[in-house]
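Subject: mismatched residue count in predicted assembly?

I count 467 residues in my input, but I want to confirm that the predicted structure covers every chain. Input:
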Amino acid sequence: MSSGKNGKARVRVFVDYSNFARRWESVTKSSPHENFKWDAFPGVILDHLARMDHVSAELEMRAIKIYASVKPFDESHPENEEESLVKQWLKDRGEEGLFKKWLQDDLDQLPGYTVDISMQINDPVACSDCGHSADHFVERGVDTKIAIDLLALATRDLYDIGVLVSEDSDLVPSTKCVQDVLDKHIVHLGFAPKKRIKESKKDVSRKDELRASSWGHLLLDDMLPALLR
Amino acid sequence: MDWIRSGRARTHDVVRVRVFLDHWEFARSCQKSLAELKGRKITLADERKAQSEAESVRWDKLARALMGRLDMMEYIADAPKEMRAVDVYASVSPKNDGSENPLRTWLREHLDRLPGFNVHQSERTYDPPEVCRNPVCGVKITPEVEKGLKTRVACDILSWAVEDLYDVGVLVMDDPELIPSIMCVQEVLDKQIVHVGLKRNGEKVRSAAWGHVLLEDILPDIFPEEEWRQLYLSRASS
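Triage response: the counts match. Full output below for your records.
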């Protein structure tokens, strides 16, 4: 394994926040901005990596990048709207505003952490029954940003081990590329796969694709005692 | 060779061109252009048929039409060029009623077999249902979304540049998601990206790209019907 100037293997962590939060919440029944020990996270990762086969014991954490997205919240108060719509506006603004504030003022301030916030986009879907539409908020560009950072940072030789916290199979091509072309190691970090009753085999294998294509993997289940607040 | 950088001229004899095309977006742009010429409005039902309608485009002429435009671009006009590949990223509807089978077959057995064409087919997925805004209707609508296509394109643009497999990348898609990869291949890997799109779409990508070609200028060369071609050219000149 190649390494940095001081002979230590350089580690960078890439976290797809919404993907991770969904899974964390389903396991711990609370969102990671409430019960996750973010300050302990880098140390726990290094600790588990050092115990992996073929990984140098000399490791150095370079950065943890969090890719998050928030719904656009309108600062202007809706006028002449029904009471229910105003209530919804206040609720949305409150939740998304607080979440964005936590990302910027708390998480981003921790040593080594960088938070990249994207705004979700409303891509309304047309109703074929009445011609009206329904709001449909989508994350735009989060996966692409992770894929590009994985590749661009590897191209500039800025890490040796990339720890990827996501279950999104969209990241498989970039994972394979940094491993096969740029000779870096990607370690997948996530919960052990759990087949739900309604889930097809195809869905399960798709979720597991990223873990399978990564050079190695770590289980969040093993880290739970050290990371749960 | 009269080329932008003398260093590159020594490395390669020709400028290697690679095209990255989003089939769904391209089909809708063609449909929109044709509808404007005809003076008709596009309905939701029309939009769903855009990809099948695009089967009638002269795909075999596309590479030549693009190369013709690159030959007119400042700085690279005089450099000898070679088309390496046209990568078509096509997402198809996940409906399993068989209605999408002809399109899937056409992509696989016709388009992919044209010289230089590689078709990367993927299935769109369904997002969780949303409720119609109209309180009287209240129907649940299931949005159909492309899954992983843009990430795949971004990865290919970057990884093939890392492997030095092209010099000029022609990007036929308007999604601003691709801007980070465009900036990276241009600034870090010293490649040129040329954006191709309709005049009123894709301003952000056009600004980020090194150069651009308007799709309107290429459409007459790839429109199938002579009548439409003439109509298009006469409208464009007026």
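Helices of chain A lie at 17-28, 32-35, 41-50, 83-105, 142-155, 172-180, 201-213, 220-227. Marking this ticket as 'not a bug'.
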